[in-house]
TrEMBL record:
<feature type="domain" description="Helicase C-terminal">
    <location>
        <begin position="673"/>
        <end position="853"/>
    </location>
</feature>
<dbReference type="Pfam" id="PF07443">
    <property type="entry name" value="HARP"/>
</dbReference>
<feature type="region of interest" description="Disordered">
    <location>
        <begin position="24"/>
        <end position="137"/>
    </location>
</feature>
<comment type="function">
    <text>ATP-dependent annealing helicase that binds selectively to fork DNA relative to ssDNA or dsDNA and catalyzes the rewinding of the stably unwound DNA. Rewinds single-stranded DNA bubbles that are stably bound by replication protein A (RPA). Acts throughout the genome to reanneal stably unwound DNA, performing the opposite reaction of many enzymes, such as helicases and polymerases, that unwind DNA. May play an important role in DNA damage response by acting at stalled replication forks.</text>
</comment>
<feature type="region of interest" description="Disordered">
    <location>
        <begin position="168"/>
        <end position="233"/>
    </location>
</feature>
<feature type="domain" description="HARP">
    <location>
        <begin position="324"/>
        <end position="395"/>
    </location>
</feature>
<keyword id="KW-0539">Nucleus</keyword>
<dbReference type="InterPro" id="IPR010003">
    <property type="entry name" value="HARP_dom"/>
</dbReference>
<dbReference type="InterPro" id="IPR000330">
    <property type="entry name" value="SNF2_N"/>
</dbReference>
<feature type="region of interest" description="Disordered">
    <location>
        <begin position="890"/>
        <end position="913"/>
    </location>
</feature>
<dbReference type="InterPro" id="IPR027417">
    <property type="entry name" value="P-loop_NTPase"/>
</dbReference>
<dbReference type="GO" id="GO:0016787">
    <property type="term" value="F:hydrolase activity"/>
</dbReference>
<dbReference type="GO" id="GO:0043596">
    <property type="term" value="C:nuclear replication fork"/>
</dbReference>
<dbReference type="InterPro" id="IPR038718">
    <property type="entry name" value="SNF2-like_sf"/>
</dbReference>
<dbReference type="Pfam" id="PF00271">
    <property type="entry name" value="Helicase_C"/>
</dbReference>
<feature type="compositionally biased region" description="Basic residues">
    <location>
        <begin position="87"/>
        <end position="97"/>
    </location>
</feature>
<dbReference type="InterPro" id="IPR049730">
    <property type="entry name" value="SNF2/RAD54-like_C"/>
</dbReference>
Amino acid sequence: MSLPLTEEQRKRIEENRQKALARRAEKLLAEQHQKTSLGTSIAGNPSQAKPGPSQNFPRESCKPVSHGVIFKQQNPGSSSNYDPKPHNSHKQAKGIWKKPEEMTTACPGHSPPRQVALTGISPPLAQSPPEVSKQQPLGYELGQGHAQASIRSIPFANPTHEPLAKAKISQETLARSSGQPPRDVELEAKTAKASTLQQNTSYIHSSPGSVTPRPEGRLQQTSGSSLQKAAVTQKGRCVRKGDRFQVLIGYNAELLAVFKSLPSKIYDPDSKTWNFSMNDYSALMEAAQSLPTVNLQPLEWADGSSESPSTSSAGQASLPSAPSLAFVKGRCVLISRACFEADIGYSQDLIAVFKQMDSRRYDVKTRKWSFLLEEHNKLITKARCLPQVQLDPLPKTLTLAFASQLKKTSLSLTPDVPEADLSEVDPKLVSNLMPFQRAGVNFAIAKGGRLLLADDMGLGKTIQAICIAAFYRKEWPLLVVVPSSVRFTWEQAFLRWLPSLNPDCINVVVTGKDRLTAGLVNIVSFDLLSKLEKQLKTPFKVVIIDESHFLKNSRTARCRAAMPVLKVAKRVILLSGTPATSRPAELYTQIIAVRPTFFPQFHAFGLRYCDAKRMPWGWDYSGSSNLGELKLLLEEAVMLRRLKSDVLSQLPAKQRKIVVVAPGRISATARAALNAAAKEMTKDKTKQQQKEALILFFNRTAEAKIPSVIEYIMDLLESGKEKFLVFAHHKVVLDAVTKALERKVTEREDLCQQFQLSPRHAVAVLSITAANMGLTFSSADLVVFAELFWNPGVLIQAEDRVHRIGQTSSVGIHYVVAKGTADDYLWPMIQEKIKVLGEAGLSETNFSEMTEATDYLYKDPKQQQIYDLFQKSFEEEGNDMELLEAAESFDPGSASGTSGSSSQDMGDTLDESSLTACTQKKKRFEFFDNWDSFTSPL
Ligand SMILES: Nc1ncnc2c1ncn2[C@@H]1O[C@H](COP(=O)(O)OP(=O)(O)OP(=O)(O)O)[C@@H](O)[C@H]1O
């Protein structure tokens, strides 16, 4: 418990205080003489008075960045606020600050900081606009003085709250510039004295006249050294209180007057303490420093560091004669293509500099100043002349990326992209490009063939990538790195869009023994690339990476294999609908793959965009910060992203895609079984025997496709496809997919770490025949058919579970087909039937025009025989049920492979009323793992 002061002690305190005040008044007077003579010339600085061309400022350019989310922000709150974390620490930032190359300019028009401060009609709060200054109750100058400046506290607008004796001349100078009358220093000194003696002020007093300091504010008896702040100093400290801070200190009348003058003051009668918003922090610390009887420790941060050495108790030791060491630091942040803002605390000197910028603009809401990029270097040069201010410039990467804006050569809000000359590219491809796809190709070519094409799913990244690569055809051989399950789909796309390309020139790498450079177009999976990369003697000049977010983790074998290839390539075309699924750190490898000179060190990127935090175990880069700026940088120099909603008018309602799965995934046993079944069909047999052979072939197809189907679904999940339906009709396929997804759900926690899978993932596994009607899944926009069905009407009905009223997006429909299986016959049969229906005006759908493999039809006579058998068998009345039953009961383990126990009700379609029952119906209708998310969009 603290003891009350004795009469003797109080007398001595008051004497010391009076002495200190007198010394300060003297010093201020002497100093102010000096200031007035220097300050007058600067006061007339015309740049300050004129409003500046801020009206010319492109308004929209300062709009916050909106659509096109490329990742989900983890801690959005951290992005815009002043960030006192390690990277901003005084020590570290100072290192940057002192860099010789950044100090080259000899500070044109350099004037001592105190002069700038005196001329500025700065508002009392860091980010207040000039107009506000007159209304603010706190009128003292928050000096950023250096060694000669000494204390420059200027009187309060409200004299009853003046905590300090004021220097008359300083006062006059400020009053002149702010249009206020000069004040009387002596009178104010008296007022200050009176206010100090107001012992009945209710603060943390227990009784009038007796100070009962809190433990933190225990009165101290000092040694009386001349270097000490005052004979008796009241110690206190600032502590965080939510987004505000609280001051823990004993009673001090002067400090109390300061408290009362701060706009954000709140007194908490319970704790008997005052708290303030962070906006008032610098002002309070500044004022507290100039009080000889107060020793206020700055806020402590989580890492135990103080905010600024200037506000440490050591910094106060030499008061009152020592200068204020207050230090404000902050950084420039890009807010649009054309402008940046200063994210920094209050400094009157700095505001004076801001006011010298012609393009200055003040945002009353954010309380931040912003400027055109062309004034960036000017502002930084001037700010560097202020010893108490550290305003970090935009990172070099940004100044390089926005060089044209910095040099004032372009102020447009969107980059100008010239039309590329595509006369050398196959006309079939060029004429089929949708307008936005053409714009994508133009963008890529304007960027020298290096970009991350991050269009939404299904917008045709493949056709654009092929077109971009074809533009650089003279630089081929081309390397295309893709997820394993889509290697053959890419082959089909090249065949479709580049008829000029000889099919033999396409090399799809299927095993670790194949050559990576055998073709003019070489298509390889990520995993095989890591095995074969050593084969590369001469580098590929043109490289496409599909699903480039597979490279997001630099420690994976995929990434380690691909990055060196990309580093030496001249053209790098990255494709991904989801370049990052959860955090900006995932973008780093893709950014440097496109622009190797950007952020050569990950740490610098992490500090700026990943909210990097130092932890006991190292740095944590899992957060996010400055996302608006990151988006601007990406859009300017790295990435092009359009959402479906942006280009919906150009898209068909349904986009069908045939996914040709790898024949290599079909096991030797399954292949043998398939071949045997196919042979049976061509033998001269009875109708019934032929039908049985067909059923067997059909069933073996299902079995053979299982690994490829599962691989494709897993790739979709890893590619960030969040919600989709999978249709199949063989029980074995439904079971296998269900099982694989169940495993995935169980493994989710591991997978979340491995692939950063979204918790929003939801997959519905449905039987084509049991769930093709009556249900609505319009919150999904992707349907995968793991198997084909001979009746296109049933397929279209199944497609329409997603494509129906309520669906506002274009729907992607992927048909998984495997060469050398029943799909070879089913697919052409479906196309044929659709065509007939279309001609009769019964169907609007044209499968063949909408899909890659238009020539997916085998014309050898034996195959024609099988095809005819398919047509016959599947068209005959009553055969549907027989085939379905066979599909349901197919047991791959059984010798014949044609039958098992015909168990469940087949072919029954579902309506809404039976929905609940169906969700229970195992193997027919499975959801992974969020049924509700399909019916009510997330
Ligand atoms: N201009 C076009 N003309 C005809 N078909 C097109 C065109 N653009 C895209 N398509 C078709 O749309 C479907 C989807 O295209 P693609 O697979 O390239 O999309 P994507 O952007 O790569 O999607 P994802 O991210 O899902 O892989 C394909 O079947 C493709 O052939």
